[in-house]
Write a structure and sequence with these properties.
By secondary structure, the chain is mostly beta strands. The chain contains no helices and ten strands.
Length: about 130
């Protein structure tokens, strides 16, 4: 699947609004692990807005009406919640809630649940080690 990148690596200063009409939102093509979101909830939509030349760093946008499942990601994950909220419960039962304006920082190795019973919009950053 070819992904259009809104701002490829280049010189210049850019700003991106999560509601920018230039963002090409696409349905997320993969099944989310442990997904038990309410029936009728779509798969979520995303778009890549920046990708490093070596593809180790990806910045994108994500939106979904609800998301109940497992924590999922790869590498180091940093999510900036723009609208909505999500609670992550790690395998030891520790709960962390992120609301609009908060960062969620986790790793692709973290295990637990992602609990989001309402709409969310977020920017995400994934950093791969290699």
């Amino acid at each position: 699947m070819t992904q259009t990148v809104l701002f490829p690596v280049s010189k210049g200063v850019h700003t991106i609004s999560i509601d920018d009409p230039a963002i090409e939102w696409k349905e997320y093509p993969h099944e989310l692990p442990g997904d038990h979101s309410p029936e009728g909830t779509g798969p979520g939509e995303h778009a890549v807005v920046f990708e490093s030349r070596d593809k180790r760093i990806v910045v994108g946008v994500w939106r979904r009406e609800a998301d109940l499942g497992l924590i999922a990601g790869s590498g180091q994950c940093i999510d900036v919640v723009v609208e909505g909220s999500a609670t992550l419960v790690d395998k030891d039962g520790r709960r962390v809630t992120a609301n609009s304006g908060d960062l969620i920082i986790y790793s692709g190795e973290d295990e637990g649940e992602w609990l989001q019973d309402g709409p969310i919009k977020k920017f995400y950053i994934q950093i791969q080690d290699k």
